[in-house]
Design goal:
38% of the residues lie in helices and 15% in strands.
Length: 355
């Protein structure tokens, strides 16, 4: 199986990336590069149910929702949806077994997947061409190679996210006047979350400098409890928007903020798409691979020291994407390190404070 570059005119392109929020945000920039290279092509994106809520009405793209909770019924529905069609190319941007089974029912002349080094969970069985291999790529850069495989040019990524004036207005109505600092404290796994009392100390520091501090997140019990704990430990008056926004309104909240603090979680990457600086907190995964793409200089991480402690090797000496394990790793990130980074970011970005 060889790598391929299709630069000829394409009339139908299917994108397969089901999840997660951060990853589909990375993929948007690649998809929009493809649109510039193939303006005549119809683009169909097979995507997860939650992720489709964020990307609904993405310009020039038909979203086909795959609801994993429906199991075999979802595969059957997808097969029926595409009956009688045959895409010029499928860009299979996900190696998980579920996504591979989805790729199986998508009819396409060419099915382009990841290079051999990144293939797993039988991915190679569901493709007939590969993207070119890359040395230590960020997830976003991997998606860019799919765009390059069909003749698109990819430089610094850009995004046109699908929000309306109504979403912008809804976000503005929720936010206080002044400079907004958003804390999006919850990752999908609790072990990736920082300590609530430490978030609170950073919130207090920001409030002393004149920021209005806002906590965001979804409606889950974990997120609501974490936000409540941060509020309990903080001396400042924090605005708690956890569970009070849909994804598009949240995106606009992030856009209207001066700065975002988050662990390895989707809203960190949402903020990148709208140009808001992000301080990322990382312990378990390599931020060079999964960190906030445009703001990797603002990451506070203990990943590399734990990788050496657990594996005895550096990231360059291990398979790319190697994770470290431990439920207490995030506690190694100090308040002082995050406050120092906070002060650096507001200086770098020219944000005027009360200090």
């Amino acid at each position: 199986m060889r790598t391929i570059v299709l630069s000829k005119s394409l009339t139908s392109i299917c994108i397969l990336r089901l999840s997660a929020i951060g990853d589909v945000c990375h993929a948007v920039s690649a998809v929009q590069a493809i649109q510039r290279a193939h303006p005549q092509a119809k683009i169909t994106w097979v995507i997860g149910k939650v992720e489709a809520m964020l990307l609904a009405d993405l310009p020039g793209v038909e979203l086909v929702v795959f609801d994993k909770k429906q199991g075999k019924a979802a595969l059957k529905a997808l097969k029926a949806k595409f009956k009688g069609q045959k895409f010029d190319v499928l860009l299979h941007m996900q190696v998980a077994l579920r996504a591979n089974l989805v790729a199986r029912v998508i009819p396409a002349k060419q099915k382009i997947g990841f290079d051999k080094g990144r293939s797993k969970e039988l991915h190679s069985l569901f493709i007939n061409k590969r993207i070119a291999p890359q040395q230590s790529p960020h997830v976003l850069e991997g998606f860019q190679n799919f765009a390059r495989a069909i003749g698109a040019e990819c430089g610094e990524p850009t995004w046109q996210m699908p929000v309306t004036a109504a979403h912008q207005a809804a976000a503005k109505s929720l936010l206080p006047e002044g400079k907004v600092f958003v804390i999006s404290p919850a990752a999908s796994k609790a072990e990736r979350n920082w300590l609530p009392e430490r978030y609170a100390r950073v919130a207090d520091h920001a409030a002393e400098l004149g920021f209005q501090v806002v906590i965001t997140g979804g409606p889950t019990e974990l997120e609501q409890n974490l936000a409540a704990e941060i509020q309990k430990h903080s001396q400042a008056e924090l605005l708690n928007l956890v569970g009070k926004t849909d994804l598009k309104t949240l995106l606009c909240v992030l856009e209207q903020a001066e700065l975002v603090l988050a662990p390895d979680t989707g809203p960190a990457h949402m903020a990148v798409t709208v140009g808001t600086p992000v301080i990322g907190l990382y312990a378990h995964s390599n931020p060079t691979r999964t960190g906030p793409y445009m703001y990797q200089d603002y990451v506070v991480e203990v990943y590399h020291q734990n990788l050496i402690a657990q594996k005895g090797k550096t990231a360059e000496q291990l398979p790319w994407g190697t994770r470290v394990k431990g439920s207490e790793l995030m506690s190694q990130i100090s308040v002082d390190a995050v406050i120092t980074m906070f002060d650096r970011v507001i200086k770098d970005q020219g944000i005027v404070t009360n200090a």
